[in-house]
Amino acid sequence: MEATKLVRVVAIGETRATSDREVTLLSLELYDDALRLVWRVRFLNAEAERGTAIRDKPEVADDKSTRYNLMGVGGNSGGSNDLWWAGAELSPAVPDDARQLTVEIGSLRFDVPLQ
């Protein structure tokens, strides 16, 4: 699985928050054999542990009951004190007839329409 043939990109731009962080799910990249999620974490207070930005691994489900496997997750702050950018790659590819994905990052849930 190499995620080399990009099929399409779904722009999301939705934000959810907890008491110490704000997570914005930016986009979903659909490949012929995988999918990638891209999100941003903004810390809302000085006490939040910056190293926990990618602690919460995303969980993905669709309306076709596909079992997605997390292949990798990573991120960086780009030198910022309160912002982190993160991404994750999962497999297999999203089925062509799937109409919605549910993405959970920690306790935060995002419903992503695909059609």
Describe the secondary structure blueprint for this structure.
Elements: E1 6-17, E2 21-31, E3 35-43, E4 58-62, E5 69-76, E6 83-91, E7 100-105, E8 108-113
With helices defined by DSSP (H or I, 4 residues minimum), what is the helix count?
0
Beta percentage is over 45%
Based on secondary structure, the structural category is mainly beta
Give the number of DSSP strands: 8
Biggest sheet strand order reads: 1-2-3-6-5
The biggest sheet amounts to: 5 strands, antiparallel
Percent of residues in helices comes to: under 10%
Q: How much is the radius of gyration in Å?
A: 14 Å
The arrangement of helices and strands along the chain is EEEEEEEE
Mean pLDDT: 89
Oligomer: single chain
End-to-end Cα distance = 25 Å
Q: Report the principal-axis shape.
A: globular
Query: Uncertain segments of ≥5 residues (pLDDT<50)?
Result: none
Short recap of the structure:
By secondary structure, the protein is mainly β. The protein has strands at residues 6-17, 21-31, 35-43, 58-62, 69-76, 83-91, 100-105, 108-113.
Keywords for this entry:
8 strands, 57% strand, 115 residues, three-stranded antiparallel β-sheet, single chain, mainly beta, five-stranded antiparallel β-sheet
Textual characterization of the structure:
The chain has 115 residues and is an all-beta fold. Helices cover 0% and strands 57% of the residues. The protein contains no helices and 8 strands. The protein has strands at 6-17, 21-31, 35-43, 58-62, 69-76, 83-91, 100-105, 108-113. The protein has a 5-stranded antiparallel sheet with strand order 1-2-3-6-5, with no helix packed on it.
